[in-house]
Amino acid sequence: MKEIDELQLPEDLGYTDEHEWAKVTGDTIRIGVTDYAQDQLGDIVFVELPAVGDSFEKGDECGTLESVKAVSELYLPMSGEVVAVNTDLEDSPELLNQDPYTNWILEIKPANSDEYQELLSASAYLELLKG
Amino acid sequence: MKQTPLHSWHMRQSANMAEFGSYEMPLWYPSGAKSEHLAVITSAGLFDTSHMSVLTIHGKDSRLLLQRCFTKDLDNCIGPKKNELVAGRCVYGLFLDEQAHVIDDAIVYQFATDSYMLVVNAAMGAPIAEHLRQHSKKTEEVTVTDLTDKVGKMDIQGPASTRILSRLLANWQAVFDKMIYFSFKGTFDPHLLSAEQVHLQDGTPLMVSRTGYTGEFGFELFVAPEHIQSVWNQILTAGKDEGLIACGLAARDSLRAGAVLPLSHQDIGAWPFMHNPWLFTLPTDTDGGFSKQFLGAEALLHPGESMWTYPFAGFDLRKIVITEKSYVVDDQGNNIGTILTCATDMAIDRIQGTIVSLATPEDDGKPEDFAPRGLCCGFIRVNRQMEPGAQVTLTDGKRKIPVEIRTDVRPHRTARKPMAAMLP
């Protein structure tokens, strides 16, 4: 188990209290799970992804991460339409353990870009983890 | 929370820790539960199991007391001929109460006709000792001693176990000679339990038992607590080039689920012990009765309403996390029971419907490029009798996972392989 100060928390991402991150990439937003989430889950062995074209509200369940010991829902940090999913994860879900930030899970076209401003900064997320 | 003597070692490795049976135990190490599970199938894994409780029973009426309280008939239990339990052999069975509810499962080791050792689950040493004392008669000569936290225990499991231990044992040829499944040699304390001595090359006395909780070939090792760190380190070093790694409770759970072994207080527990895969623990006679009287026998012979417990395997690795909202659904959509265990055996997958393991020989259907993704498996307890092959659905209220009722899950397990095939 990583100590809190060992966790990688890139500054250029927005975070949620459900341990997802969001990154602005031009007109779209990439979404993944944090270093803390992958460390807590342990070996991720299966990722259930939504279909491209599906639309979700902020906070909706949009997928599942399954580890050896747990099943964890993925909640969408911002409302929008799924425009891409990372199909590499279907065959290699362990990529999320190896590098949870390079390996994004899905990409959305946000319904309301302002929602990004409501996400936690890296330092606010770190404070949340410290409890 | 209690700790085992290896607790600081687990912490130094940055293991993911959790409470189990009132002990803080490693769930997995940084290598991950999947690697740990696979290591036991292909090489070997080392588990800290010092949280389990050890008891001794001494005195001329020891066997009488065990016959009264333990489900196995110690006079008719070894092998197909049902020979009696003798020194150097051990058996797996249960302690039931009058209602035939399971108090705990245990392995009974015989050192002499008046000297036995029991291994029960974490936190069960005191309750089982109390249970045995309550059921011994005043006139009987028997002493039950609870050695909880006074014995160090670790399990080395996997096909490379003998090769690795042979590098550390003094006179390993003699130790492994005729060491059949469910036999043991040596003692962790010669003053407490006398037996032929087994030593490591550095002189450490230990007890080597050819048993385990993974379904794979291997040993449970018992040592005095002051030696456990040294023995642990020696095994890790000796096993490094064989691929041995330390394994946590997550791998232990997924391995035992695939091997159709029950977890006490989860798959067997405070309900009548019947209609389940583990009836071999009962002293059933050829005529269907029991070969001895024991606590719980009356309730088993005159059963009331009961449920059925079955092993299952899924069709992919998705599983259901067990909560108060999870249940089993039949093909009509009815709630028919509960999920007892749901884990993922990472070493298996289905090839055209048939379950194949990493340990399956290619002649028996393992494809050359076999890379299993794992299958969910475990036990359900349902309100009706079902046949192997029948399908039910597991749900947590949201996800629905179809699974198949099975008699067995992970094929080609190695636990019963002849010792001769495993020697260096």
Give a verbal description of the structure.
The complex is a heterodimer of chains A (131) and B (424). Chain A contains 4 helices and 9 strands, in the order E-E-E-H-E-E-E-E-E-H-H-E-H. Chain A has one domain (4-113): RNA polymerase II/Efflux pump adaptor protein, barrel-sandwich hybrid domain (OB fold (Dihydrolipoamide Acetyltransferase, E2P)). In chain A, the strands form 2 sheets. A 6-stranded antiparallel sheet of chain A has the order 1-2-3-9-8-5. With 131 residues, chain A is an alpha+beta fold. The longest helix of chain A has 9 residues, at 122-130. Chain B is an alpha+beta fold and 424 residues long. Helices cover 17% and strands 28% of the residues of chain B. Chain B contains 9 helices and 21 strands. In chain B, the strands form 5 sheets. A 6-stranded mixed sheet of chain B has the order 10-11-12-9-3-13, with helices on both faces. In chain B, a hairpin with a 2-residue loop joins strand 17 (348-351) and strand 18. Chain B is globular. The two termini of chain B are 41 Å apart. Classes of the chains: A alpha+beta (131), B alpha+beta (424). At the A-B interface, strand 4 and strand 6 of A face helix 2 and helix 8 of B.
